Amino acid sequence: ELKVEQNPLFLSMQEGKNYTIYCNYSTTSDRLYWYRQDPGKSLESLFVLLSNGAVKQEGRLMASLDTKARLSTLHITAAVHDLSATYFCAVAPSGGGADGLTFGKGTHLIIQP
Amino acid sequence: NAGVTQTPKFQVLKTGQSMTLQCAQDMNHEYMSWYRQDPGMGLRLIHYSVGAGITDQGEVPNGYNVSRSTTEDFPLRLLSAAPSQTSVYFCASSYLDRAIFGANVLTFGAGSRLTVL
């Protein structure tokens, strides 16, 4: 059974600081996704990571994937208030993906001025 | 394009009542799925479909039924609602994007908030 663990689950940080969210998963997979959810809203796709060593960047967010360690990270550089949201990683089973994703519990990120 | 449309947005039921959450997509996506989101639990897969006429169970299927008679629609039925089914339900559609090596990027609906008393 595929399990996905995120940490931390809650993070309060100040604007301008850097921080990393970690996503560990339990079985082999080569497809990892990051989503963002604003309060009361739906989920929005941020990154798709498809191979070992993959790195994607968008603005102040950078995601990476280490399939050997079964670990993905989401790094926030010089945080701004607009990045406050809940961030989810999700993993597809190896060799597939059409049969749904397994999500982590989410990291609730609050960025204070 | 509307994307993924879920109705209703809010619903209150009494224990034992039945209802259907509707989900429609206009992107001609092959795959559709239902998730429930509970505080501190992330999203959990209820049922999914890889095409019209084909459905399968996810992690938490008990108490829910689905069918997929058309590519566009994937309704979720609660047969006899229980308080444990109080949750926010998200429908998603997707396809395996060959441009990004078959990645299955989900497009989510706005969600349906269900309360069972």
User: What does the overall shape of chain B look like?
Assistant: globular
Derived structural class of chain A:
mainly beta
Q: Approximately how much helix is present in the residues of chain A?
A: under 10%
Uncertain ranges of chain B: none
Q: Given the C-alpha coordinates, what overall shape of chain A results? A: globular
- Mean of residue pLDDT of chain A? 91
Largest interface: A-B, 25 and 30 residues
Percent strand of chain B equals over 45%
Structure explained in plain terms:
- The complex is a heterodimer of chains A (113) and B (117).
- Chain A has strands at residues 4-7, 10-14, 19-25, 32-37, 43-49, 55-58, 61-66, 71-76, 85-91, 102-103, 107-112.
- Chain A has 113 residues and is mainly β.
- Chain B has 117 residues and is mainly β.
- Chain B contains no helices and 13 strands.
- In chain B, strands 2, 4, 5, 6, 9, 12 and 13 form a 7-stranded mixed sheet that branches. Chain B has a 4-stranded antiparallel sheet with strand order 1-3-8-7, with no helix packed on it.
- The radius of gyration of chain B is 14 Å and the shape is globular.
Features:
heterodimer, A: 113 residues, mainly beta, six-stranded mixed beta sheet, globular, B: 117 residues, four-stranded antiparallel beta sheet, 0% helix
Write a brief structural summary.
The complex is a heterodimer of chains A (113) and B (117). Chain A is 0% helix and 53% strand. Chain A is mainly β.
Structural topology:
The complex is a heterodimer of chains A (113) and B (117).
Chain A lengths: L3 E4 L2 E5 L4 E7 L6 E6 L5 E7 L5 E4 L2 E6 L4 E6 L8 E7 L10 E2 L3 E6 L1
Parallel strand pairs in A: 2-11
Antiparallel strand pairs in A: 1-3, 3-8, 4-5, 4-9, 6-7, 7-8, 9-10, 9-11
Chain B lengths: L3 E4 L2 E4 L5 E7 L5 E8 L3 E10 L2 E4 L6 E3 L9 E3 L8 E8 L1 E2 L5 E2 L2 E2 L3 E5 L1
Parallel strand pairs in B: 2-13
Antiparallel strand pairs in B: 1-3, 3-8, 4-5, 4-9, 5-6, 7-8, 9-12, 9-13, 10-11
